[in-house]
Every structure is written in C-alpha cells, then in structure tokens.
Write a structure and sequence with these properties.
By secondary structure, the protein is α/β, with parallel strands linked by helices. Helices cover 49% and strands 14% of the residues. The relative contact order is 0.11.
C-alpha cells in the first residue's frame, strides 16, 4: 500500500477552521448580544490560533531534526529496510521532488520510492539497506531493470544502497541506464556534497 511522504504544513490563513470559527462567531453575535458574542469569538479564535501555531512550530522543528539526521550516514546503516525507504523518500523531498510515494513491500515489483524530480522526470528508486559484507549483485539489478522502465515508467531509475555493487551488477546498471548509488554516493547525497540520483 502506498504511503505518501509528509508534506510541509500549510499556512494558517489557508486552513478552513478559521472560516468555521467566523461563521460560529457571526451566529453567536446574532443570537446573543454583541459584547458577549464578540468576547466569545475572540476567545475561540485566540485558542485556535495558539494551538495551530504550536502544531506548525512542532512540525517545523521535526522537519529540521530530520534534515540534520539525514546527513549522518551512520543512521542509514542502523535502519531497518522500511525505515531506509522512508529516509530515501525524505532526501527526495528535501531536494525538491514532488509526488513522493513509498511503495516498497510485497508485490512492489522492484520499486520502493517513486517521485517526480524537480525537472518533471519520473524517478523510480529501489532501496537496498544491506550490511557491509553484503553486496548488491547482478540479480538484484536485473530484477529491477526488468520492471523499472516497463512497469513503473521510470525516466530515472536508481538503486540506492548502504553497501556497494558487485562488478557484474555495476556493468549491468551501466548497460541499462540504471543509476547506482553506493554507500559513498549516498553519503555525498545525504550531506549535499554529492549529487542526487537524478542529477
């Protein structure tokens, strides 16, 4: 099942709750006398705005913490495969991608993260959270290569790993236009000292 990536909080002015409060306030003013209705409207609006601003501040702080953590490459090695997929989706979001979906799991046909690059191209990423002694082999690339373009419609296909690629896997990836992001390239992407897979 698709899990949409977290979106940035919307501005307070765009939230429908303020309109609802205004309607309630007008009704209160019509039903009650003006001073009591005005006070009630001010109190309700004030409470709503304080709560909403607190939530927006918490969301901004969480985004900042995730941004800082995303640059610590050791964290990727400590993640389970599902957490790794979400971390890669976060890097895509951080670097300007849109329509980011984490789709990995049973029946994913090789795709773990699907997104739209800042320039509009469709990105399909397979995530391989492997330990240091497990390399991404040619069979991994062949399975992904068999679906990334024909099934998922990739314009940019990439395999991102916390490990490295075997030579046959690397050769297959080069022949089929699959971008390979090993642990070193992932560290560069995460710390913004290297390119994102779609660049």
């Amino acid at each position: 099942m698709s899990t949409p990536a977290r979106r940035a909080p919307q501005a307070i002015a765009r939230r429908p709750g303020c309109a609802v409060l205004a309607v309630i306030g007008v009704l209160v003013l019509l039903i009650n006398n003006f001073p009591a209705g005005a006070v009630l409207l001010l109190v309700i609006t004030g409470v709503y705005l304080v709560v909403d601003q607190h939530k927006a501040k918490q969301a901004a702080e969480l985004h900042h913490i995730r941004s800082l953590q995303s640059t610590e490459i050791a964290r990727y090695h400590a993640m389970n495969p599902r957490e790794f997929e979400h971390a890669i989706a976060f890097l895509c979001e951080r670097d300007g991608c849109l329509d980011i979906r984490v789709v990995g799991g049973a029946g994913d046909l090789g795709a773990d993260v699907i997104a739209t690059a800042p320039d509009g191209r469709r990105i399909v990423i397979q995530c391989k959270r492997y330990g240091p002694t497990t390399k991404v082999g040619s069979p991994d690339l062949q399975r992904f290569g068999g679906t990334c373009y024909s099934v998922h419609g990739a314009q940019v296909a990439a395999v991102v790993t916390t490990s490295v690629f075997t030579k046959p896997a690397f050769n297959y990836g080069v022949q089929h236009g699959i971008r390979m992001v090993d642990n070193g390239a992932l560290a560069g992407w995460a710390t913004r000292t290297g390119p994102a897979p779609w660049m």
